[in-house]
Design goal:
Layout: H1 2-12, H2 17-30, H3 33-43, H4 54-65, H5 69-79, H6 82-89, H7 101-111, H8 116-128, H9 132-143, H10 152-163, H11 167-174, H12 185-190, E1 205-206, E2 208-209, E3 223-228, E4 232-239, E5 242-247, E6 271-281, E7 284-285, H13 288-296, H14 302-307, E8 310-320, E9 323-324, H15 330-343, E10 349-351, H16 360-367, E11 377-382, E12 390-391, E13 396-400, E14 404-415, E15 424-433, E16 436-443, H17 449-461, E17 463-467, E18 470-473, E19 478-483, E20 485-488, E21 496-499, E22 502-506, H18 518-528
Parallel strand pairs: 1-12, 2-13, 8-10
Antiparallel strand pairs: 3-11, 4-5, 4-6, 6-7, 6-8, 8-9, 11-13, 14-15, 14-18, 14-19, 15-16, 17-18, 19-22, 20-21
Helix pairs in contact: 1-2, 1-9, 2-10, 6-9, 10-11
């Protein structure tokens, strides 16, 4: 734990990727293989989930310090992180834990089914026998809230440097449904077919948002343009007469999409397709909100399959006849896709068609009609591009349409987290319904640090009521809220749900009474809603 806590502090105190990589390599050089494996799991999202309830941890630390609940809650809201708050209140000791990272995690997992008193005894003992840094990371482990500013790409680079293996090879070996409790470090990363299995996907290649004019990226003849669909990015894998479906978030979602099972025997073995899974009915895409409702269900019933059938719009092939095709140029991979669709027909797959255009001006005109075409904009891909790992600039761009916007009034605020823990930065916005304000979304991104500090001052001076961590404020400030999509919702007071809301700007030129109305939102829903 001492080594792990030291690493955590090192990477948490720097924003430079090189420093993070060097700290990780130093850890890998010293740690045993099992500790390395658990570190990889923790930093790539395979951490144990919620092993001990936060409410119990609060109860135990409050009892240990003999302080009132309200004081702990106020402290927690100021600090902004439960694990750190408990670490600050834990008994002070310079003694380091004698347990390894693996031993601590295995013990925590074993405690999951034990009674609360047994859990309490173990946790209190650890709090009193670890340094503050160790208690902090220990708390992160037991709450399942282990998050740190290290991307999987950074882990991949550090492992490649440590093991002297190509980054692409490491990235591929880290993919899939491996479990640190049942897989060894050697099996995962050092064997030639290290823990490889038929279900393993490839790392996804991601596009950057196009922020410059398209003319700046080169000649039109060097690029392929396709519609950008609003669904779930996924890979369909068919190997040895078995089918697997993976989401971009490295989640195995085969059971969520039983329709694709019929592809076995239709698409040849040794094929991996990359594309967008969308709700699709009556020859048209369904809104993302309908697909989201479907994937949120634990059980996929016959009724759900009828209400929200799905298809994959396929735009790339990563493997064909058991051969990795990622190093082939895009135009070569497109030829393979064309061959697949000519020889193997299925109504569950749709081949992504390129958009015909001669000039960038032509494409701008087409992009402007994206919502009418049921898409989010345009994808631009260089014809000779290979399929890379992660997000890279230069070869793939997403050129999304301009967002929908609405002017809304700030009515509630909460403190942020981390470095924003002392500022009110999480906001709830409302629009007018006659003489009444009705909430319709929350947003917390889009403003500069200077703007956030000014708004924080306003909130503290204009608070009407307090509801725990939430403050109700005088409805005076108007903001332009941008969002990607709009849909009906029975869960919101407004009857409206918006997708990816963020703050575009503060409307200093508008008074609260000039903000938009609920009718404006419903009119927008009629035109653009799903």
């Amino acid at each position: 734990m001492k080594q792990f806590a030291s690493l955590f502090r090192s990477v948490d105190e720097t924003t430079k990727t090189t420093n993070k990589i060097n700290a990780l390599v130093a850890y890998f050089e010293k740690a045993n293989h099992q500790d390395k494996l658990w570190l990889i799991a923790l930093f790539t999202g395979k951490r144990p989930k919620g092993l001990i309830k936060n409410s119990l941890l609060k109860e135990w630390i409050i009892e240990l310090n003999n302080i009132p609940y309200w004081l702990f809650e106020q402290s927690y809201h100021i600090v902004g992180d439960l694990a750190e708050t408990i670490a600050l209140l834990s008994p002070k000791t310079e003694q380091s834990s004698s347990y390894s990272l693996t031993e601590v995690i295995q013990k925590i997992i074993a405690l999951k089914k034990e009674p609360d008193e047994t859990k309490k005894g173990y946790v209190l003992n650890q709090w009193s026998s670890m340094t503050k840094d160790e208690v902090f990371v220990f708390n992160k482990l037991i709450t399942g809230g282990f998050r740190i500013g290290i991307s999987q790409k950074t882990i991949t680079k550090a492992l490649a440097k440590h093991l002297k293996i190509e980054e692409n090879t490491i990235a591929h070996r880290l993919m899939g449904n491996w479990d640190p409790s049942t897989t060894s470090f050697d099996e995962l990363l050092l064997s030639e077919n290290s823990a490889d299995n038929d279900s393993r996907p490839y790392p996804f290649y991601l596009a950057y948002a196009l922020e410059q004019e398209p003319e700046e990226i080169g000649n039109t003849e060097d690029w392929i343009a396709e519609k950008k669909w609003d669904g779930i990015r996924g890979q369909i894998i068919i190997r040895n007469n078995e089918l697997y479906v993976w989401s971009r978030g490295e989640e195995l979602v085969t059971d969520k999409f039983p329709e694709f099972k019929e592809l076995i025997g239709v698409i040849p073995n040794g094929t991996v397709l990359d594309g967008e899974i969308i709700g699709y009915k009556q020859n048209a895409p369904l809104g993302f909100n309908k697909l989201q409702k479907r994937i949120a269900r634990k059980n996929i019933t016959k009724q759900i399959l009828e209400d929200v059938p799905v298809k994959m719009i396929v735009y790339d092939v990563l493997e064909f006849v058991n051969k990795d095709r990622r190093e082939q140029p895009l135009i070569g991979r497109k030829k393979i896709l064309k061959l697949i669709f000519q020889n193997y027909t299925s109504n569950k797959l749709i081949l992504s068609r390129k958009i015909n255009f001669k000039t960038w001006s032509d494409l701008k005109t087409i992009r402007a009609k994206s919502r009418e075409l049921h898409c989010e904009g345009i994808m631009l891909k260089k014809k000779n591009s290979i399929y890379q790992v992660g997000r890279k600039k230069g070869d793939w761009w997403k050129w999304k349409i301009e967002p929908l916007v609405i002017d809304a009034v700030l009515i509630y605020a909460m403190r942020g987290h981390g470095r924003r823990a002392n500022l009110y930065t999480d906001y709830t916005f409302a629009v007018w319904d006659n003489e009444k304000l009705v909430t319709f979304c929350k947003a917390y991104s889009g403003l500069t640090d200077v703007e956030l500090k000014e708004i924080d001052k306003f909130i503290k001076k204009n608070t009407i009521e307090r509801f725990g961590p939430v403050r109700s404020v005088k409805p005076l400030l108007v903001f332009e809220i941008a969002f990607e999509g709009i849909a009906k919702s029975s869960r919101h007071k407004s009857g409206i749900a918006v997708r990816f809301p963020r703050i575009n700007r503060q409307r200093l030129d508008k008074k609260a009474k000039e903000a938009n109305t609920i009718q404006d939102l419903h009119d927008m829903l009629t035109v653009y809603g799903g």
